[in-house]
Design goal:
224 residues, 2 domains, 11 strands, globular
Length: 224
């Protein structure tokens, strides 16, 4: 009992000094120091996860014959100014199929599930093409979160009922009734001295929706 009590006092002493000590013939870091390091690590990880999740992308070209028929039918019913190129994107949680093409010099990406279910259409735009009120909110959020950053790409995202989105793309791009509109903004910034890429999603009015750190691994250069 006395030996156990003496050991307890020795451990407590090591905690207070937070230094390297010799105990039972072994040199090690004090328990308190270990706890402090662990606590700091956990706080850092939690704070970073609260800011954004990771988005892993591995994208490569595929042939039209390997694309689900429903996705082919959707894209074939549209008119583009360039050849449609198909890609498969492997993420952390899912696999998607994308068609990429140009229409009136605008780069379009049409995304489907691996089984060919329509998900959304993204069109690359310039920042000044976002309505001024929405862009003001977006700029404010980005500036608040990042002292220094650069906008690398902006896309307007259309999602919702497959037929409504298809009619919007084919017939009347001024009629967005029943369609959900979001803005996807990719920025480059620094975290702990390292450059990273972040993908932000904002609502049509510029409200924050979510953010992800992009971990990209592509086999091909993406072109349109």
């Amino acid at each position: 009992m006395e030996r156990e009590f003496a050991n307890t006092l020795l451990i407590h002493k090591n905690d207070c000094e937070t230094s390297f000590k010799t105990y039972n013939g072994n040199r090690g870091v004090s328990i308190l120091l270990k706890k402090n390091i662990l606590a700091i690590s956990v706080i850092f990880l939690l704070s970073f996860q609260g800011f954004s999740q990771s988005k892993y992308e591995k994208e490569f070209r595929i042939k039209a014959k390997d694309v689900p028929s429903s996705a082919l039918a959707f894209v074939d019913s549209m008119t583009f100014d360039s050849k449609v190129k198909w890609y498969k994107e492997i993420g952390l949680n899912d696999v998607t199929i994308e068609a990429k093409a140009k229409f009136k010099n605008e780069r379009h990406s049409i995304e489907f599930s691996e089984n060919g279910i329509f998900q959304d259409v993204e069109i690359v735009v310039k920042p000044n093409q976002i309505p001024s009120d929405a862009f003001s909110k977006i700029s404010g959020i980005l500036s608040q979160r990042h002292k220094k950053h650069k906008i690398e790409k902006v896309q307007v995202q259309y999602s919702g009922d497959r037929n409504l989105v298809l009619r919007f793309l084919r017939e009347n791009r001024n009629n967005t009734n029943g369609i959900t509109i979001n803005f996807e903004v990719v920025i480059s910034t620094k975290l702990d001295g390292n450059y990273i890429m972040l993908e932000y999603l904002f609502s049509e009015t510029g409200e924050y929706v979510e953010s992800n750190q992009i971990i990209s691994k592509r086999k091909d250069t993406i072109d349109y």
